[in-house]
Predict the structure of Flp pilus assembly protein, pilin Flp.
Amino acid sequence: MDKLSMNKSRRVRELLADTRGLSTVEYIIILCLIAVVCFAIWRQFGETVKAKVQGADGMVGTLPTDSSP
């Protein structure tokens, strides 16, 4: 039993010391934070941007076009 306990203890230490994959986790966390910030910005300014784009679309629609060849 004591040998099994020592093997488990050694395996736990090895797992805790293993740093492979940490950069992937960090990138995922950063990506999630960027998504949250973008969502907050969209919630804050989304309607304003939508109104500006619709206004610009209306102005472009009234411009004269030259259809002669």
Residues 24-52 form one domain. The chain has a mean pLDDT of 85.
